[in-house]
Design a protein that fits this description.
The protein is an alpha+beta fold and 161 residues long. 27% of the residues lie in helices and 30% in strands. The chain has a 6-stranded antiparallel beta sheet with strand order 4-3-2-1-5-6, sandwiched between helices. The longest helix has 22 residues. The relative contact order is 0.19. About 12% of the residues have low confidence.
Length: 161
């Protein structure tokens, strides 16, 4: 039992940091009232788990992309960030159909059995969508797979999902 408890703490730390980062929006030039309700504000993808507490996290906004990867057991951590063009942002967001995001189903976490959890977080002006291991939803996952494929194009290989 103590090994599971230690493993859970080790793996959950990066996930909690990711969630905490979304609670801090910072200052933006646009106010929420000037945005369209279905306008995508940010996209996040993470792949966290495994026996060594491996993680890859990508956060994308209209003007930038930030990626980090590492292993908690060996305490390795790497970061990369870059500006993106409006064209790239539109390419990413066009992979998603805001009207059908609510239909995507999450699946149970696999971290408890040394598995990996794939998490997507999509924030619009009015809603926050989070999906864990949605690849099991073969009907509605296609748009998230398209998004993941497009994310792979814009980030270096070592940070790719």
């Amino acid at each position: 039992m103590p090994a599971i408890n230690y493993f859970g703490k080790k793996v959950m730390a990066p996930l909690l940091l990711l969630l905490a980062s979304f609670s801090c929006n910072g200052n933006t030039s646009e106010t929420a009232s000037s945005r369209k309700p279905d306008e995508i504000i940010s996209i996040s993808y993470s792949d966290i788990g495994g026996e060594e507490g491996e993680y890859k996290i990508v956060r994308i906004t209209r003007d930038s992309v930030y990626a980090e990867a590492g292993t908690t057991q060996t305490k390795t951590h790497h970061e990369w960030k870059s500006a993106i063009s409006l064209k790239t942002w539109h390419s990413l967001t066009s992979a998603l159909d805001i009207n059908t995001l609510g239909r995507i189903k999450s699946s149970p976490s696999k971290q408890s059995v040394d598995g990996y959890d794939e998490t997507f977080q999509i924030r619009t002006a009015e809603k926050y969508h989070a999906y864990v291991n949605s690849y099991a939803d073969t009907v509605h996952y296609k748009q998230l797979q398209r998004l993941k494929d497009r994310i792979r194009i814009i980030i270096p290989p070592e940070y790719q999902p």
